[in-house]
Amino acid sequence: MQSINALNKKVFEKARKMPDIHPEMFIALEEYDKTRKLKRWGNKIRVNFTLDPIVYKGFRDYCQKHGYKMSTLVEKAISKAANI
Predict the structure, then answer these.
(1) Which of 27, 62, 70, 79 gives 84 a disulfide partner, CB atoms 3.0 to 4.6 angstroms apart?
(2) Number of folded domains in the chain?
(3) pLDDT one-digit tens code per residue, 4-20
């Protein structure tokens, strides 16, 4: 079991990296500090795909069984295929 200090250090290290990983969140929070209004930011876009009905049903069932969001798995597959 890890000590509390080791866990705190890991949390602190992750927190220090967050502005680099998700700068849009921190920009929105800075704007909130100035205006006291929190704007929604849309970091996703909607796209449409045509799939074979059997493939779609199998994919939907797989995602439901394993607790995944379909869009998350599609996004990961596209990122992997395109080396993004």
Answers:
(1) 79
(2) 2
(3) 677 788 888 888 888 88
Residue 36 DSSP class: S
Q: 2 in helix, strand or coil?
A: coil
Question: Is-contact 39 28, C-beta < 8 A?
Answer: yes
Instruction: Tell whether 31 and 13 lie within a shared domain.
Output: yes
CA distances from 36 to 25, 28, 32, 40, 84 (A): 15, 11, 5, 13, 35
- Of 12, 27, 43, the domain-final residue: 43
Claim: this prediction has a pTM higher than 0.70 = no
pLDDT digits (tens, 9 = 90+) for 40-60: 766 778 899 899 999 999 999
